[in-house]
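User: Hello, can you help with two protein structures?

Assistant: Certainly.
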Amino acid sequence: MPVWLAAGAWGLVGGLALVLGALVAWFVRVPRVVVASVMAFGAGVLIAALAFDLVDEAERSGGLAATVIGFLVGAAVYVLANVVLARRGARHRKRSGDQQPSEQDAAGSGAAIAIGALLDGIPESVVLGLSLLAGGAVSVGVLVAVFISNVPEGLSSAAGMKRAGRSAGYVFGVWGGIAVISGLAALLGVLLLRDASAVTVAGITAVAAGAILTMIADTMIPEAFERAHVMTGLVTTLGFLTAFTVQRLT
């Protein structure tokens, strides 16, 4: 299978985890403390993937300067985009409670939430694709981290959408569309960067990593802490150790 096609397939797999989480939220009443705990676990998994797969690999292949600059650019771009979307009703897009506005509460919030969910998902898909460029095969650690973190993201956000009165068509249209776009983002990342220099690939990887870490702090940890409270740190640590163990064993 061509590398670009494999990248698209793995990106789609990561995106489908969001659909899986949304399906659970739509048909099963999951206690919010469970949602929060799984969200904290997913955050820990992603942090480990950032530390031991993405940023470390970017620094070793492209140098410290490209990695630092890319990381800061990714964080800044995410924050700016998130500020714009928050003003349009997407601030609480990952919350499972009653924080998400309905369309009646904030006109246009449905589109803002959808775009915000896409903003959260694309960096993860890009790094999945780029991991194939680095090693010829998808990074198992990154794939596991993306999949494990996407399930609670989809679950929590879809639960909030349902509480806000969003229709099933909207909820599954959003997550199904993001799954497809995730695959396309991974595919295009490989096609556009397969002949790029190591410094360029490292810089792009760092940009995506910076955006992911900012997303964790801005959207995943607040949802986790709201319900899990003092257990958040412990569960996040367990997620981190799980991802670290997978990375060391593969």
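That covers the first. Now for the second protein you mentioned:
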Amino acid sequence: MTVRTRFAPSPTGYMHIGNLRSALYAYLFARKNGGAFLLRIEDTDTGRYVEGAVEVIYDTLRSVGMDWDEGPDIGGAYGPYVQSERKALYLPYAEQLIASGHAYRCFCTREELETRRAEAAARGETFKYDKHCLRLSKDEIAAKLAAGAPYVIRQNVPLTGTTTFHDLLFGSITVENSTLDDNVLIKADGMPTYNFANVVDDHLMAITHVMRGMEYLSSAPKYDLLYQAFGWEIPAYIHMPPIMKDAQHKLSKRTGDASFQDLIAQGYLKEAVLNYIALLGWSPGDDREKFTLAELVGAFDIAGMSKSPAIFDPNKLTWLNSEYVRSLSPAEFSAYARPYYAEAGIGRMDEGILCRILQPRVAIFSEIPGMVDFLASLGEAYDAELFTNKKSKTDPDISRAVLDMVIPALSALPAWTEEALHATLIGMAEQNGMKNGTLLWPVRIALAGKQVTPGGAIEIAALLGREESLRRLRVGREKLAQ
């Protein structure tokens, strides 16, 4: 048997974390087992369709390296791979179920259903369709069809007995048929519901393993009843526990939780996000935490999947992202950082120096503007007390003397380079019997206007250039003279 998995998202405008994990696990399982990974767009819920969302799905999967073997854009032997383009396929299968007694037409109006739902709520009961239209005679049905009455097609779930389905993660689960509702299979507009279309499509596309969220666990017995009604082989199920914001709340874009696109926009690396998502509900069985996609393929095994919900920990993601940032080459770091340099207004500064001082400190790239704001503009209202530092043994008097000595020496530099700045400043400290820190601390405070900066006085001066550095040093000296 050739393993065939699928990722079947709805085009709703973004790729949330749970969706991407579903795609990733289906992809890893297929690749690990030498099988095929399919992409199918499930757009039967036209009310939720968002223009451009299909491109978001394509772009997201491609950006993280998840290629698909069959799909809407590349075709395949089982197409089309967009459900709305398969609309004509579903009604004949639904009518086949009607003929065998496993489905029926339901003519109940929305108002009638709402009334019964309200009555059930008043009794403290969960609403369940009462099979009202199953009891219609052939003549009554024919009359309604002749009159053009709108209808849906519902699954006819047995009222007695049990249905047992098997999940590779949760084992065998048995439910009482009396607890199951008669799902709508075909809507009044002729479009199939998800519950019907995914069964038909998974069969027609020869899907062998269905990997989906645990929210579909309760629907699995109804899917099995459909497979049995058709006489089709049931695929293997793997239901994944949810990704939670905390112990009580699921991750949800609606409540402000980040989608994949949001995380990338915040400055996370796509490789780090994908790596972290892989670990939300799966463990390699050892202490490894950093994986390439190829390494994930080699390590993935459903035996390592958890039955318990996974908690999305932004701090853990940020730590993992920092590990990826550290491993970038200087050129790669600079390429990622460049938009943030532009945002901070320092786009023309020496990228070599910026990389050297920022790469060891940056966890996510969106931190960069806040880390380098002082390079773009000196906050001249800083307190002169910043010049006092016990460790460097400086105070306002010592700092003023240092700046009086440094300004003319730097003004006379023939070349404003890191090497020349280093030789001059360190040489001055040695000539005057000072510790390097005693001389460099007031220079850094004058240049940055703050105590904590990435990089020291020499790197900051090199980045600012001669004119701006000397201007800031003179501002510092004036502040100390007041």
